[in-house]
Amino acid sequence: MAHILIPTDFSANAFNAAAYAIELYGSAGNTFTLLHAYMSISDPTILQAAGLEAEIMREADSALTDLAEQLREKFAGVDLDLQQSMMTGDVFSAILAHADEEQNPDLVVMGTQGASGLEEVLLGTHTADVIKRCHLPVLTIPEEAKYRTPRRIVMADDGGPVDRASIKVLVDIARWSQSEIMIVRVFQKEGASNTDDHDSPYDVVLGAIPHSLHSISGENVSKALHDMADQSDADLVVVMHRQRSMFAQLFHRSTAAKLAMHTHIPMLVLQQGTN
């Protein structure tokens, strides 16, 4: 049984992400928490600040209830354990507060807008903060993404260590969806590797889950990865976020100019070494 945390700002994009999460984890026994964070009015010079904040709370609470009702109506045939939570502060602080609770969420599901894919996922303010600073896995859903059961998953291999705990979410998804996992290592120099037999820990951590190893070349790591995902008709892209990896650098705004490609494919960001 999984606990899925779904931050929302009540946008159409956030609704799409929530619906995607329920499609993916809608089986009985899983819990979904809709989370809305709002900023408190702390400026004493604002006339009737207390009254305004109370009104903001009432409107947010009403919107959160409406969202839950819309999701229950959309998934009328699913026995949903759908909870609601509202907190003051920024979205990262709200997620972190939930992550520190006794019922620690297994996954955060968030929407991305506009130019999606790595550019938006890694540079979008809220999503980037959550990915960089939170120890929870994060599933990002592009604005135009439509749910389909994952059958082929492309996972980026940065050559670092992999353990069962870090990829548990991926393993769970792959098992019940009977997905094939394509493990891809991108070499930035042409001819750095022309074989698919590089040492890999995945035989151990994935076990009987169908998987294959691939090596490709490309100066732009993110573009090469997503080109592979598009060519393979992948349903999900997976990257591991850890310090000092080649993917860690993608989480810095200095690389924005290099992240030119967009994608409609959801991305699962796993966390290792952040606990």
Task: Note the topology.
Layout: E1 3-7, H1 12-25, E2 31-38, H2 49-74, E3 81-88, H3 91-99, E4 107-112, H4 117-123, H5 125-133, E5 138-142, E6 152-156, H6 168-177, E7 180-187, H7 202-206, E8 211-217, H8 221-231, E9 236-241, E10 267-271
Parallel strand pairs: 1-2, 1-4, 2-3, 4-5, 6-7, 6-9, 7-8, 9-10
Antiparallel strand pairs: 5-10
As a percent range, the share of helical residues equals 25-40%
Strand content bin = 15-25%
Number of distinct helices: 8
Gyration radius, rounded: 19 Å
* Name given to the CATH architecture of the largest domain: 3-Layer(aba) Sandwich
| Low-confidence sequence ranges | 114-123, 251-262
- Structural class given helices, strands, pairing? alpha/beta
State the distance separating the first and last CA atoms: 22 Å
Which fold does the CATH topology of the largest domain refer to? Rossmann fold
- Order of helices and strands, N to C? EHEHEHEHHEEHEHEHEE
Mean pLDDT: 79
Q: What sort of overall outline do the alpha carbons produce when their principal axes are compared?
A: globular
Number of strands: 10
Biggest pleated-sheet summary: 10 strands, mixed
Strand order of the largest sheet: 3-2-1-4-5-10-9-6-7-8
CATH class of the largest domain: Alpha Beta
CATH-assigned homologous superfamily of the largest domain: HUPs
Number of domains: 2
